[in-house]
Amino acid sequence: MSAFHVRRRRVAVVWRTLAAIALTVFFLFPIYWLFMISFKTAEEIFAFPPRWWPSRLQFDNYAVLFKDGDATTVWNSLVIASASTVLAMVLGTLCAYSLARFRTGGEHLSNWIISQRMVPPIAVVFPIFLIYVLFGWVDTYLGLILLYTAFNLPYVIWMMRGYILDIPISLEEAARVDGCTRWQVLWKVVFPMARAGLFATAILTFVFAWNEFLFALVLTRTEVTTYTVQVTHYFGGQSGFWAKISAMSVLGTLPIFVVVAFMQRYLVRGISLGAVKG
Amino acid sequence: MFQARINLRAAAVVQRILWVALMIGVALWTGAAAAQSAAQRAVDAAKKGCAGKTITIVWEAGLQSLDPLNYSGPKWEQLTGCKVKVVEVPTAEMFTKIMQEYRAGTGAYDALNVVPAWMPDLVQAGALEVLDPYVDKNGFRDELQKIAPTYRDNQMKVNGKIYGFPDDGDVFLFYYRKDIFARADLQKAFKDKYKYDLAPPKTWKQFDEIGSFLTDALKGEGVYGASFFREPTYAELMFQERFRNEGGKFFDAQSMKATVNSATGVRVLTEMRNENRFMPPGVEKFGFVENLAVFLDGKSAMTISWPPYGRFAAGYLANEKALDWVPKSKIAGKVGYALPPGGHPQLALGFALSVASTSKQKDLAYLFIQWLNSEEVSTERVQLPYALRDPFRDSHFTNKDYMAKWPDAKDYLAALGEGAKTGLLDLSLIQTDKYEEALRQAMSKLWAGGDPKGILDDVAKQWDDITQRVGVDKQKAVYTGWAAKSGAYPSSSK
Amino acid sequence: MGRQIGRLSELLEVRVGSAGSLVAPRARPRERGFRLALVAPSIGVLLLFGVFPLVYLIVVSVQNITMTDVDQSFQGLLNYRLLAGDPRFWGALLHTAIFTAVALPLELVLGLAMAELFIKHVPGRTVFVALLVLPVVVSPIVAGTTWSLMFDNRFGPINQVLGWLAGGPVAILWTIRPDLVYGAILVAEVWQWTPFMFLLLLAALSGVDKSQLEAAAIDGAGYWRTFRTIVLPAIWPVMVVAILIRALDLVRLFDVVWALTKGGPGTMTETLSIFTYVKGFQQFETSYTAAMALLVIVLLSVAVFAALKRVELAR
Hints:
The complex is a heterotrimer.
Chain A: H1 3-37, H2 42-45, H3 60-68, H4 72-102, H5 106-116, H6 121-135, H7 141-165, H8 169-177, H9 182-193, H10 195-211, H11 214-219, H12 227-232, H13 242-273
Helix pairs in contact in A: 1-13, 3-13, 4-7, 4-10, 7-10, 8-9, 10-13
Chain B: H1 2-35, H2 38-50, E1 54-60, H3 66-80, E2 83-89, H4 94-103, E3 111-114, H5 119-125, H6 132-137, H7 141-145, H8 149-154, E4 157-158, E5 161-162, E6 165-166, E7 173-177, H9 178-181, H10 184-194, H11 204-217, H12 232-245, H13 263-275, H14 288-296, E8 302-305, H15 308-313, E9 335-338, E10 346-347, E11 352-355, H16 362-373, H17 375-382, H18 394-397, H19 400-403, H20 409-422, E12 424-425, H21 432-447, H22 452-470, H23 472-483
Parallel strand pairs in B: 1-2, 10-12
Antiparallel strand pairs in B: 3-11, 4-5, 6-11, 7-8, 7-9
Chain C: H1 2-15, H2 29-61, E1 64-65, E2 70-71, H3 78-84, H4 87-119, H5 125-132, H6 134-137, H7 140-151, H8 157-166, H9 178-205, H10 210-219, H11 223-251, H12 255-260, H13 272-282, H14 286-314
Helix pairs in contact in C: 1-11, 1-14, 2-14, 3-14, 4-9, 4-11, 4-13, 7-9, 9-11, 13-14
């Protein structure tokens, strides 16, 4: 490639990097503001004019959360979100494959799966509460895990169907010719090819389960309170635990950040592998 | 013969002495039994039935629930063997969770904290247990009488039956900067301009004059004459108070038509909007904590809020871990306490202890709340360093320990005591929340620049619609009952 | 209605060029068993949570259950009639539609632009992508409250920065002024969900055939032409789903609006979800909200199919 092209390439990279930085600042600033509050004292939080950084890094707010046992709610969220994501991904991807390749159940099945997503949770939370009372699932891990799985399934099925449709069927046919069983085709061909989509969907499914509030509010009491519900305990009519709110939010965001950071390596790798097709 | 007579005499004397001794003995014994407090009786009764059982009580999440979590729960368990499980629920969700669990018939909750204004709705729905039989069985009536009159007479009963024990002396108190009011230069300038002495305002007209004057005079120091929590949730409670102090009535008692859009109402809204001009910019968004921050920072000379402001402003136990979210007070020792203009403060919100009708352990639940609400235990609880429970029994207002907590605590308690005598109840009907919702929306429309008359006409129309839906006669009966209470309108309170 | 929904399946499959969804030849029994085994568990779970609540909604919506009365007598279409005549309901519908119609295109375009940016080489891409996903990850309630604090006149940085630019203190009440309220909410909403679109579209762009792109570049095709003829068809299936998911979520918009305005001033920004929450959770108008939920489900379905039909016609 000529020197001209190389330079144009470099300039383009510089512009892209600058754009990336600008975007990151915009999207991260409010989070920075929130996280910063977790290190501030009450004066600093309500200082006028507002201060943009805490005077010193003090971890007292975090210590309190651990001492009071509030931090266990983050663990509850972790258990529930992880289990329901795994379950939803497994069940959903398999179902999506069937729908994508064989149009199993035809229109009616697709219809029905789609329509599940159109039901506003706020309307069904009470009947579900009634069912749970019957089964004794209120305030249990099992209850919330099953629920989140069910509510995320349509999303997983839709998304994975889209990603699977992107994979050329010729690859699968080739594998069959080579003697693979149907299950082996799934494992060896489909899943690796759909890796980017798998991780993107899994991340977002996890996030939906992690941040869910309404069902967690109604279906838990004291045993499996999730972090989203716990945070709302700090919004009082006659109190405002801003330090706790933000410290808890940091604690609640860190696990996901770790998960995302870990998984998106695979995501990006999937991008750069960028399927040479045809 | 003589001997026999002396013997008879002696015997009579001895008999009399024995008789007196017996009487004294009986008196002492019954006295001891009677003097055995309601708290102790509750403990004793509970000990018999507890053995490894757990009472579940719903409590407001956050600071409030530190009481049962750190103090009353463990103490009760220590005394009786009953465990206490505290279900913390965010304030905004308390009513929802209580109703949902009740509707689903789960029996998950034994005892409850309820806001008195919710009681008619909860009772109508059947969610609360009638407490009279339990009160009589355990002889608690006398002690209930010793709760300060306004709370006792207005926040305990629905349709003449006891459904909850008032447990929190929430009242809107007027706080002002004594030091600013005492400044000679300001006093002179004010007297010159307005012809009366600078002092805590007795009427809202005076408040407007003092507020605008102080904002002008103290502009250089960055201090405002006043600031309030104008956020709609709080503002609508202030409207309820002010409207009634100015003579307004919510409904026409005969026709049950809403009269909130009377000339008084319009005037009140207009004045409230105009006052914002001499308050800190953005005051329309101030909630409890924002307003507190401004006041504790010394930036406003007058404000109105719940009792905790008084304790926080005095820096009372400011180093308590649970209170580290409270901005440090720069005005300790400079705060005066009074009743809001008009003299009848709103008994905004508050809490009462109740028993859930679907509980499977009603007796034990009742005993727990009797113990919590009793004289000794409640006196301890309102003095907890992290307490949000405010004094509510007559004895609390004259408690020597409390008075010693900070130099001006005496005046603080006196003001609270006054408020407990003249206070006004939150509006409490069937579907109260719908009526209050209309008021909240009216406040937010007002801050957005709407016209007071138009806004209130709309509120009146909404209120009439709600009354129609509930049933005019049904609502009228409830309203009449509410309006007859001593704390409903100023003219009828003591 | 079934026909229409089925179009979606067709749409997704027809659009994809060389990639395959050729329906396999008629299945042998073991084959059929395999296919059913794939879908059965999902169906089972969905049935458990899908059937009873819907039945409950239908039954309750024709009764008259309110906070104080559990009146289970048959009321016919009472609640639906009340709903149709309730201006607050139509207002909520309108507000929700406005939010959806404005936020969705913004999120899509911005998300796509970001995905295009990162699909090519950027140093430290891993770090950037991980950071940019954070807004989606923060609890919506907390995100809403944080933005409320950001817009706060006294304690927030936005007015502070504006004050620096304007040369003097600025006291703009973003969440109270009727003319600014929608803007504030949209900023918070777009901020939180654009990364969602970004992530999905990034994964989708990775599936675009690189050899085709190179061929187009050699032919001298411009950016837009390449985009329209090669990229768009390739990412279409995922994009359609992303739009649908986001649209349905926007219809349920609650946390951000509640944290910023609680639906105010008055009911100016009240969305369907907020209205349902107030009526169902605070005022316990159980039957009324059940009727509303069913109505919304029906309206949504109609809207979705109408949109799909239009999209198909345009193609």
